Amino acid sequence: MLRRSIVRSFSSASDRRYKLLDPKVNWKMSEAVEKVLSLSNASSKERRKASSQQVADAFRLHDLDCGSTRVQIARLTVEINALKLHLEKHPKDFSTKYGFRKKLGKREGLIKYLKRTNPTDYVYTLKTLGMAHRL
């Protein structure tokens, strides 16, 4: 709890999103506080949230965009890659395998929708994510 309140107090009043230390901002704090608030000491949940936030920031059309098709595909790709790593270590985790397949299907549906509605975003998104696109 203390960690979250410290981080929230450092963020600006206009930015309400939860963040760990933003590397772009030059914070003036001691080395000990920097270590405590760094992403390397964060929980796995906080690291997943931070990576999802970074990917969303890269695909946003504007500052308030959090649910466009591009962002959804990018976030699903991050989740799928994490599940893929988990399933390599735990191949008999069938409930995770089921969730993995559901996420693959959802991403495939979103990709088809994006291809149909906005082909330029489709090509950009798949190239940026390193996925092969079918024209």
UniProtKB/TrEMBL annotation:
GO terms for molecular function: structural constituent of ribosome. It comes from the Eukaryota. SUPFAM superfamilies: S15/NS1 RNA-binding domain (SSF47060). One of its GO terms (cellular component) is ribonucleoprotein complex. SMART domains: Ribosomal_S15 (SM01387). InterPro entries: Ribosomal_uS15, Ribosomal_uS15_bac-type, uS15_NS1_RNA-bd_sf. Keywords: Ribonucleoprotein, Ribosomal protein. It holds the Pfam family Ribosomal_S15. One of its GO terms (biological process) is translation. HAMAP family: Ribosomal_uS15_B. Belongs to the universal ribosomal protein uS15 family. PANTHER family: RIBOSOMAL PROTEIN S15, BACTERIAL AND ORGANELLAR (PTHR23321), SMALL RIBOSOMAL SUBUNIT PROTEIN US15M (PTHR23321:SF26). This is 30S ribosomal protein S15. It comes from Aureoumbra lagunensis.
